[in-house]
Amino acid sequence: MVAQSNEDGFPSKAYVVVYGCNMNTLANDYIPVSYLNAFVYCPRRFFLEYVRGMFEDNTHTVDGRSSHHVVDLRSKEGKPSRKEDVIHRRSVYFSSETLGIIGKLDLLEEDDGGNKYPVEYKKGKKPKDRGPWLNDQVQVCAQALLMQENGLLLPDKGFVYYIGSKARAEVPLTSDLIQETRRVIAECKMISQSEEPPPLAENRNKCVSCSLNAICLPEEEEVLQGKKVNARTILPSTLDGDILYVDTIGAYLNLSDGNIKITAPGGEVIGEVRIEQLREIVLTGPVQSTTQVTQTCLKNSIPIHYLSFGGMYLGVSSSFLHYHGLLRESQWKAHFDTNVSFELSKVVVISKMVNMRTMMMRYLREENNSDDQVLFDKIKGLIKKAKSSEKLDSLRGFEGMAAKIYFSEFGRYVKPDRRLLFLFNDRNRRPPRDPTNALLSFGYSLLAKDCTGTALRVGFDPYCGFYHTMKYGRPSLSLDMMEFFRQPIVDSVVLSSINNGVFKEKDFHQFQNVCYLNEKGRKKFLIQYQMRKKDLVTHPMFQYRLSYERTIELQFRLLGKYLLKETDRYQGFYIR
Prior knowledge:
The chain is an alpha/beta fold and 576 residues long. It has helices at 24-27, 33-41, 43-51, 59-73, 134-149, 175-192, 205-209, 213-216, 218-224, 291-299, 325-336, 338-364, 370-388, 392-408, 435-458, 476-482, 486-499, 519-534, 548-563, and strands at 17-18, 31-32, 81-83, 86-96, 101-110, 116-122, 157-162, 167-172, 242-246, 252-256, 259-263, 269-274, 278-284, 288-289, 304-307, 313-317, 508-511, 514-517, 536-538, 545-547. The protein has 19 helices and 20 strands. A hairpin with a 4-residue loop joins strand 4 and strand 5 (101-110). The longest helix is centred in the middle third of the chain and has 27 residues, at 338-364.
């Protein structure tokens, strides 16, 4: 569409939108020019961001957004400003139905001769002894084509301004660059209609600084395909942000100057933390929270988890579901596909049984008891039967038999001098009847909380599982995934804490055959639990070291790749 120009030299009916308007109202199926940049950098990244709507921050994206925020603040609602003999218009939107793209020009510059040029801002430093990268050149060229489509003259050049070095680089808009840009637009349109992701980038060095590396998992994908790859650790070892645990009876949380204050029933402030420091909040028992705190947490995507006084996981309040609807669609399809659901159930059960056997061998092997070897062999035989099982009921039966063997010997994992207080006869819950079971139940509730939070963060529906039966209010997927980590995280914490004398009789509240951790005991357990989650473990498949909390996330990410058919198999997590 070419429109008549007004007195400023802009088309009077062009699709020009100033900063502050909702770009989505024009977007429809238009491809933002920033995604063209992503495509040239890596077609797989374009697919994940544009087609599947997946995005994750890293240092580069946060710094870049911060730098652009400073630029946008100068915009003054898109009104022109004069700097010497040059007119600046900032944050100007154009779209083109013909090209099928839409984009924002960080700066539209007009010289004293009336020539207009696009200027794109980048956070980094100007390349030495070379021009801008091709992906940045294509983005600037696409902006120039949008100018032409909206009635302005096609400029002969554009610019990239590098905030890091406070210098600009010229981008000559040659016929070759224009042709390349049109080719990129055409390929992006074609890929946007595909359900299959493009191949992985050949230059794997790009993956290291890519913000989507924790989602794409390129080297992990190749390992799953059977290729010999020395996978590098992509996920950081730990998660950023703190977890706020509040379990003081009658405490309440309120908001004050961007801080969450925790106040005891008598009015004493017993804690204070800034919103920016938090990753999630866990409230145990009768703890109150103001509407302002809840709303602020929702706005900042900070989930609030609720546990009962006895430690049972009750649920979570969180913001809107993750944008990744395609992942949840594939999750539900797999749930209703009995073959896929059963195979995933086998992965869950087999990994759990392997971990139970490993834990038994760690604690009992030194005794050199021939009867123990019989038990080890029994679980090994059950694992073999589970691998060849064809029915879910049989699978549940094998798991039940392995668990019975595992917990029948659990009391022996405790040091003899600690067995008086921590006598363990069997696994009991709802409610737990002894201190050891109280520790196990509280630990499993925390693990369920962590798996639910991770499921939401990655984009899953935590209530749609494969092995655990779906019931109202039961986070079935979270329960499935936590089976990988019961022994490595919770059981390990419980046994090491008991054997190291962390807990005393006064840390428990016991009455009428019911046993719970009291407030002091819960605080002790939370310290041990958080420390365990930060311990590093070598992943059995990829051979790099990650914290346990990041390993939980990795298992969810890998499940997503499997459900979206980016890999043809899914493997559980097991300890050695």
